[in-house]
Amino acid sequence: MPTKKKTKSIKPAGAEAGDARARIFNAAAEEFATRGLAGARTESIAKAAGVNIALVFYYFHSKEELYSTVLEEMFERWHEALIAPLHQAGTPEQRILRYVEAYFDHVAASAWKPRLVQQELMHTKHSPTMKKLLKKYVKPVFAEVAKVLEEGIDGGSFRKGIDVENFIYSLGPLVAQYFSHCAALMEISGKDMLSPERVKARRIAVLDVVSAALLAKDHQKGK
Question: What is the mean pLDDT of the chain?
């Protein structure tokens, strides 16, 4: 009786499996940020991740599922990075500046992140998946920032009359647009906007703008 030929599993074992999935995730995120969902190619993702395309479909059954997974994990990581400093002990000023620092550092770690997210945010109508992500991950962060801002206003360390809602909306572009527009800024300035020196200078400038816009005059003098 002929024996059945065994086929080799495409699934990596142990730590290799986690590493392969992480490489697929990172390659997919950059591909989607560069080409969008429609233009992204799974072959390019597999090549960039250094895996067989069959392994991509082992973890993610379709390009659409891969895109949704990448998007959700990005929002989840953003939420985790930004909610933590808001919950730490400290004055409202300290918590807000830590929040801005965490926001900047999270975006700066991968310059393609804001491009991918902005592609979704610019749609006039959002998918049910995107609506879920905004409600689950973004809304709680904005609510916590509002609480800290209101605490600072009531305590006198932040300026009276600050439009809390619009201040929150302004922080995102202040942090992220430098990175999403970096290619255009390089053309305009002739400088490498992503060099460590330029990123460091931008981080300092962002914190200066936030402090100047937020702190009460008496509190600024006391610094």
Answer: 87
Report the Cα 96 to chain-centroid distance in Å: 18
**pLDDT tens for residues 119-150?**
777 777 888 888 999 999 999 999 999 999 99
Domains delineated in the chain: 12-61 (1.10.10.60), 63-221 (1.10.357.10)
Whether the CB-CB separation of 194 and 182 falls below 8 Å is answered with yes
How many C-beta neighbours within 10 Å does residue 220 have? 13
Q: Where are the alpha helices (DSSP H) in the chain?
A: 14-39, 42-49, 53-59, 63-87, 92-108, 113-121, 128-133, 139-155, 164-180, 182-189, 196-214, 217-221
Q: Report pLDDT digits (tens) over 82-112.
A: 999 999 999 999 999 999 999 999 999 877 7
Give pTM, 2 decimals. 0.81
